[in-house]
Write a structure and sequence with these properties.
- The protein is about 90% helix and about 0% strand.
- The protein is an all-alpha fold.
- It has helices at about 5-20, 20-30, 30-155, 160-265, 275-315.
- It contains five helices and no strands.
- The longest helix is centred in the first third of the chain and has 123 residues, at about 30-155.
Length: about 325
């Protein structure tokens, strides 16, 4: 169903009214007619709205159906994608396993080839060794023949084993003697080392004690020098103390004489048992008072002189 066009509807219904005279139209139509016209317009409008609503619902239903189909397709695609991913993962795993198996087989083949080469090399070495031993055996047959002739001519040995046994015994004895000689040589070297170590320690001890004696001698001389210095200083202190005591006695005597003269000047008997500090304080106070008196007298003398000068000037 086609969608209802409201613009065409309103244009068809109201285009004639736009060019009509409103007063003539209202006079021509009665109230009942206008009411019926309004109801008819409302009915047409409702029908148009219903048609529009049905069209909208049908469109929505179509859209919902299409959305469901799209959802189903999306789910189907997701499932296919997951299966494809799983297929890729399985294929990758199979490929890795095949590559790993091929690598292992190749490594095993290389190891077997290397082992075969080593076996062939060992075989060649053994063949070479056997050939050398055969040549040695051929070369040493001369010595065997020589030893057999020695046994025939010598009455001491009966068989070749006896000669070899005797040779082993002599070799063992020689080895023992060499070992004993080595032990004795090591012992002698150890004793020499101990002797040299003892001599070195004695020399070091002698040098250390010589240094100690020299240090003690220097300390003794230093102590004696300090003793003389301090003794001289003590004599000087005693002499200085005696002079200071004599000077202090004179100062005390002079202080006491000044103290007594001050009290005599004031016409008072001096106080007994006053300390030197108290006497000096009183002397200081007296000198200060005397100084103030002298200053005041000088001021008064100056003022008197000024008055005398003024009077003399008036008399003239």
């Amino acid at each position: 169903m086609a969608a209802f066009n409201f613009e065409e509807y309103f244009q068809s219904k109201f285009s004639e009214r736009l060019f009509q005279d409103p007063d003539a139209s209202e006079n021509h139509m009665t109230a009942a007619t206008r009411l019926l016209e309004k109801k008819r317009e409302m009915l047409e409008l409702e029908q148009a709205l219903s048609a529009q609503k049905e069209a909208f619902q049908m469109k929505m239903a179509s859209l919902n159906s299409r959305r469901e189909e799209l959802d189903k397709k999306e789910l189907s695609l997701r499932g296919s994608l997951m299966k494809f991913n799983q297929f890729l993962i399985e294929t990758d795993i199979k490929k890795q396993r095949a590559e790993k198996k091929a690598n292992n087989e190749r490594q095993e083949k290389e190891l077997k080839v290397e082992e075969a080469a080593e076996k062939m090399a060992e075989r060649e070495k053994l063949k070479s060794f056997l050939e050398k031993q055969r040549k040695v055996l051929e070369r040493e047959k001369v010595y065997r023949s020589y030893m057999e002739r020695v046994i025939e001519k010598s009455g001491e040995f009966q068989e070749l084993k006896d000669i070899l046994r005797k040779h082993d015994t002599l070799s063992s004895n020689l080895t023992d003697m060499i070992e004993k000689s080595t032990v004795m040589t090591d012992r002698l070297d150890s004793l020499k080392q101990e002797y040299y170590t003892m001599i070195t320690k004695n020399d070091e001890a002698t040098m250390r004690y010589t240094n100690i004696i020299a240090d003690l001698t220097w300390k003794k001389e230093t102590a004696m020098s300090n003793h003389q210095k301090w003794e001289s200083l003590w004599t000087h202190i005693q002499n200085t103390a005696a002079r200071n005591v004599l000077l202090l006695g004179r100062v005390k005597m002079a202080t006491e004489n000044i103290y007594i003269q001050i009290y005599k000047q004031r016409g008072l008997p001096p106080k007994e048992a006053e300390s030197v500090d108290d006497q000096l304080k009183k002397i200081k106070t007296y000198i200060k008072d005397l100084t103030d008196i002298i200053v005041e007298s000088s001021k008064q003398e100056k003022q008197s002189k000024e008055v005398f000068d003024r009077l003399a000037a008036r008399i003239k």
